[in-house]
Amino acid sequence: MNGGFTEDTRRRDRGRWPYAHLLSATDGAVLIETVHGDEHSLRMEVMASSARIAEGEPNKRGQVPGRIDVDGIPEETCRRWIAARPARGESAVSDEPAQTLEARLIAFLAARLDETQKLAQAYLDHAVARKRPGPERWANQTLLRAAEADRAILDLYARTLAILRAPVDWQALAAEKPVIREMRARDYLDAEREACVLRLAVLHLAAVYSDYPGYDPGWKP
Fold first, then answer.
1. Burial category of 16 from C-beta neighbours within 10 Å (exposed 0-12, middle 13-18, buried 19 and up)
2. Where along the chain do its domains lie?
């Protein structure tokens, strides 16, 4: 799908910018033309442009957005992206089973860490009160600090998921400058990568409690 691209875009450095996007008006005039280094930022650009087309509002010159062209991906992929864009006022995230699974994983590990912290603190308080030898204190202090560290990882994972699942205002995004949309797309891509790494860490942390009731075998890393 590169019939609508200008000569400059077709001559771009494909090693650095393998993807391109062009939004044209109904009169054929070029409104927005951008190049992208990754597929995700291209997708964000396509969905923002589809929002402009859906609104059908003319620019200051009276031109109405009417056509999207992409280069670097199959036309069918572009059509799926456009179809996936939520209507105005809808959430960009649906309540799918994968989200329920992640919520159960987070809740399970949070509960186990609560128990571990309370138990370690109780043993530590008992050891201090009875003036137990240093090793017993150190063991419980280490267990308490380990649980706190695990909770920090779990909290970071939960916050990263919240970023990825936050509703996207596609109309507002469409009104931004292309460079701003590119920055937001990269932020989202960074969050996706971080979530993948953090999820593996959380799965390993949860596996410590694999013999507890409520542990899902599907969480095994």
1. exposed
2. 7-84, 97-219
